[in-house]
Design brief:
With 471 residues, this protein is of the alpha/beta class. It has three domains: 229 residues, Phosphoenolpyruvate-binding domains (TIM Barrel, Alpha-Beta Barrel), CATH 3.20.20.60; 77 residues, M1 Pyruvate Kinase, Domain 3 (Beta Barrel), CATH 2.40.33.10; 117 residues, Pyruvate kinase, C-terminal domain (Pyruvate Kinase, Chain: A, domain 1). The chain contains 16 helices and 21 strands.
Length: 471
């Protein structure tokens, strides 16, 4: 099941894609990583999906990544007397901590941390930004606002405070329970929601303790003020355009997306572009031309992966959505302009032996027309540095660890294989040639470029580059 493309596909599982037959179909259509969205579903539901995916690894002899996506804090208004109200532009509207059901003049908002963060003139967005309020007066338990953009508002609609850093942890009690459960299951990645500052990631890293990769979802404008630090603290980053698009003007999202993608690429961290990529395929068998262009743009920019959410979780055409995304990626990657863009946005290697070796490996592979670059890595760091170079040939990652092989399913251009640990240097070349041939990356007479670190098993110790020929 070798993929003949570089960018990877993440598919979200949901009510319509929970059977073994459907999950197999999604994988065969092109899904490389499966997302378990813990905002919905029970733990037993996620365990069934998890077990199916792990069983598929045996069937297809391929490492498959599993992403646990935590819900994060959800800020919502309370109930209304009639279930919903109409807010008229220009009228006053009060938010407070009272338990009294709301009406056209006020609503309960049981989040004192919001009132703590307010300033005069702060904008509040309700119901995914459909309603906009401007704060006129506020205290520790209330806010008097003017309705700038009105509309219908009903029970439990979400509240966003785009210009403020709220005194909230990104991990709720539910998240902590979900995290413990997911780590015990053995998920490969944990996606953090509601990250506002680097400290949120540090807290999660301490709890996860290396048992999974830490993926930061960038969906709060406040996080962009600390982008470099957040990227450095993360193992991967997701451009969560849904929530980000609520809190910033839509016209700002494309530039923010490119800034995040290029920052992650420079740092050598996997970056995922997500949300509404093929949204119309929730109900239609084909996407709009604009959606196809959206996916293509992320691929042209060099994103490691693109993600499907509702399209595969609850959509009517989940397999077709994955197949369409797979097809779009293929079309982009055979376009000569794609390779020009990869070369144009090449980043200088850092002043380390590992970066020097991986940069040289890309150049050598290009010069001798190698069929593949083979990396030996215990933690995956060598492989990720190689993927950062965006070489013209695939990257075959050989690792003795199942968790590393599964995490690397997310990385650009990487085909990961779990193999026995190396003991002596001579084994490296023999094993690289054998696996490159058996996995369909090379034929007799083809040259390979091999990178590794000696002594074997030392994280980040890449210090060898070897050329070999398949016999």
């Amino acid at each position: 099941m070798r993929r003949l493309r570089n960018a990877k596909i993440i598919a979200t599982l949901g009510p319509g894609t929970s059977s073994e037959e459907m999950i197999n179909a999604l994988f065969e259509a092109g899904a490389d990583v499966f997302r378990l969205n813990f905002s919905h579903g029970k733990h037993d539901d996620h365990k069934r999906r998890y077990d199916i995916i792990r069983g598929m690894e045996e069937k297809y002899n391929r490492s498959i990544g599993i992403l646990l996506d935590l819900q994060g804090p959800k800020l919502r208004v309370g109930n209304f007397k009639t279930g919903k109200v109409m807010l008229e532009q220009g009228n006053r509207f009060r938010l407070d901590l009272s338990d009294e059901p709301g009406d056209e003049t006020r609503a309960p908002l049981h989040h004192p941390e919001i009132f703590e963060a307010l300033k005069e003139g702060t904008d509040l967005l309700l119901d995914d930004g459909k309603i906009r309020l401007k704060v006129l007066e506020f205290g520790k338990d209330f806010a008097e606002t003017e309705i700038v953009i009105g509309g219908k508002l009903s029970d439990h609609k979400g509240v966003n405070v785009p210009s403020a850093v709220l005194p909230l942890s990104s991990l709720t009690e539910k998240d902590l329970e979900d995290l413990r459960y997911g780590l015990d299951l053995g998920v490969d990645w944990v996606a953090l929601s509601f990250v506002q500052r680097p400290e949120d990631i540090a807290q999660a890293r301490k709890l996860i303790a290396g048992r999974a990769g830490v993926m930061t979802k960038l969906e709060k404008p406040a996080a962009m003020d600390h982008l470099d630090e957040i990227v450095n603290l993360s193992d991967a980053v997701m451009v969560a355009r849904g929530d980000l698009g609520v809190e910033v003007p839509p016209e700002d999202v494309p530039a923010l997306q490119k800034r995040i993608v290029f920052t992650c690429r420079a740092a050598g961290k996997p970056v995922i572009v997500a949300t509404q990529m093929l949204e119309s395929m929730v109900q239609a068998p084909t996407p709009t031309r604009a959606e196809a262009s959206d996916v293509a743009t992320a691929v042209y920019d060099g994103a490691d992966a693109v993600m499907l959410s509702a399209e595969t979780a609850v959509g009517e055409y989940p397999v077709e959505a994955v197949a369409m995304m797979d097809s779009i990626i293929h079309k982009v990657e055979i376009d000569p302009h794609y390779r020009k863009m990869m070369e144009a946005y090449r980043y200088a290697p850092e002043a380390t032996a590992a970066d020097a070796i991986t940069a040289a490996a890309r150049q050598v592979a290009h010069t001798i027309s190698a069929s593949v670059i083979v990396t030996f890595s215990s933690t995956g760091s060598t492989t990720l540095r190689c993927a950062r170079e965006r070489p013209m040939v695939p990257v075959l990652s050989l690792t003795p660890r199942s968790d590393t092989a599964r995490r690397l399913a997310l990385a650009w251009g990487v085909h990961s294989v779990k193999t026995e640990d190396l003991k002596i240097f001579r084994d490296m070349v023999v094993k690289a040639i054998r696996i490159a041939k058996s996995e369909g990356f090379a034929d007799v007479g083809d040259p390979l470029v091999i990178t590794a670190g000696v002594p074997f098993g030392t994280p980040g110790a890449t210090n060898i580059l070897r050329i070999a020929w398949v016999e």
